[in-house]
Fold each of these.
Amino acid sequence: MTDVADLKKTLGRFHEENLGIYVHVPFCRARCRFCAFYMEMPGENRVQTFLSGLDHELRLYASDVGLRAIPVHTIYFGGGTPTTLPSRQLIRILNDIRYWFTVEDDAEISIEVHPGTVSPDSLRTLRQSGFTRLSVGAQSFDRNELRDLGGRAFGAEVRQVVSWARSVGFTNISLDLMYGFPGQSMESWQRTLGEALSLSPTHLSCYAYTLEEGSPFHREMMQGKGAAPDQEFQLVLEGEAVDRLVAAGFERYEISNYCRAGYECRHNMRYWHVLPYLGLGPSAQSSLGHARFGNVADLESYADSLKRGTLPLDEVTSLSPDQLDRERMVWGLRTLSGVPVRMKATEQKTTLLQTIRQLREQGLLQVEKQGRVRLTDLGMRFVDTVAVALL
Ligand code: SF4
């Protein structure tokens, strides 16, 4: 746990021009088999503990840490499944953020939505209260695959949510899909992509399945059941997504993200461009200037710490200028537009430039005339190798 004064010392002279706020709502009705995120079942007491922790946390950051005057450009409610909370509680959180912070009139305000946790009325209330963007967790449109993943939504329910959302005025709707999990075939992935496109979303996120330690799939694997992801097949499925989505008019603007022109997720762009964001709620991570810090992944400790007036941080790191350059490079390379290299000749930067040269010789990076560095097609396949080399 960290005193506000200690965090302020780490932040030093902190002058950010704008801010994104991420709210981690840690509740889900059941755990999906691929998921290792921190989550809780939503009992009434647990929810009240969370809301009261959040009240304290907002006040501490806005008033005591001094972030109140920084214009907030984006807010993102993620989790967990934020919509396991009734819309009145979600709106209360949003209004509290507006009370404590300076939220711009045209801020992008996103919320992750899972079918089965929303209705036309709840979506209408969210829209009328200022949420501007929905991210719908679809994963797959194949009933058997969804059952195996432990999801509770089926294609028809996703279609229904999208239709309700449009009817109440949401025009910016994203769908989350997953590929390369055990049992998925090329044919079922093609059907899923086709179904997703038929709903005319403005944005699609296509994530490769990974075997996360702590997930039910991982436990099964340790008991000798199940299979590890087939990375070669995943690349084939990813290629199919690129071909289908680009042909349908989507731009691939980040390794896993596609959008119609002008519909990039502004909040997620902050992560890739290393712009400041404040994470609220248990296990949420923050990045302000050169400081990186994260909340404990435990609701009770989170709320207790805030009640005592201390921040529930389990780790605070201060990056050196060299580490900051490398972080910017690694995150920026995830975007298809790449990242500018502005280097003054220092010893550390010479080392970084040498790494970039080696990666270019291996065919993983390309350097453009204007001094921008981008991943090649090969680099996109080996993005983790590139990241390890750069960090
Ligand atoms: S994947 Fe999402 S909905 Fe499923 S358990 Fe994890 S956080 Fe909850």
Amino acid sequence: MSAPLPKAYKNGYQDFYGRDFLVTPDVLIPRPETEQIIDAILNLAGKPYLPGVKPAPRVLPENPVILDVGTGSGCIAITIKKELPEAEVYATDISEKALKIAQKNAAKHGAPISFIISHLCKNVKTTPDIIVANLPYVDENWDWLDKEALSHEPFVALYAEDHGLKLIKELIDTVNSKYLILEADPCQHDEIVSYARSKYELIETRGFILVFRQPKNLPGP
Ligand SMILES: C[S@@+](CC[C@H](N)C(=O)[O-])C[C@H]1O[C@@H](n2cnc3c(N)ncnc32)[C@H](O)[C@@H]1O
């Protein structure tokens, strides 16, 4: 028996960081754990993101360039632009169908974003200050995985080879931004931190989110 269609696909919308995003089975349903990417960026921008939490000093330039790799519904890129309007925001996806949904969401929320069809960052010509990526990281062989529950979401949005880390590792190999923010299952964090070590130092972990910075002695953008 196949799993019932998720409520978000039935309704056509999912909340993310207090805004409604159009979703269809062409895009991953935005998850609450991904919202911490937005908090991490606001923290780097010295902006308050939680009542009662004092923001850190701003470390980003006045008009930071931010790239969201694997944008799906566009929820991360669009939320960044709404919360940090001074940012110049780019977003890529390998799926043309996903990019169409992301463009609709950007129009709905009045968020000017440059959308680019691309494998990872291959077609991006600018050097961002921050790259954020919630790439597919699910390992098909995890014994706790409920594949049935995920069966309505796109395979390309969920699964990756090399124990789920193929695309994350390739991204680390190819980028040169000052900050890199990744989402992955906490069971994968140690391996990612160790893989990134020659290029990036870990500055923060927030649930599923890892925040990296280039060490000062490496060339930045
Ligand atoms: C886990 S979903 C994340 C979607 C959205 N960013 C979010 O947080 O809800 C991963 C996204 O990466 C895209 N993707 C998969 N392989 C890719 C690749 N090689 N290059 C760029 N995007 C890719 C998928 O199409 C999907 O939209």
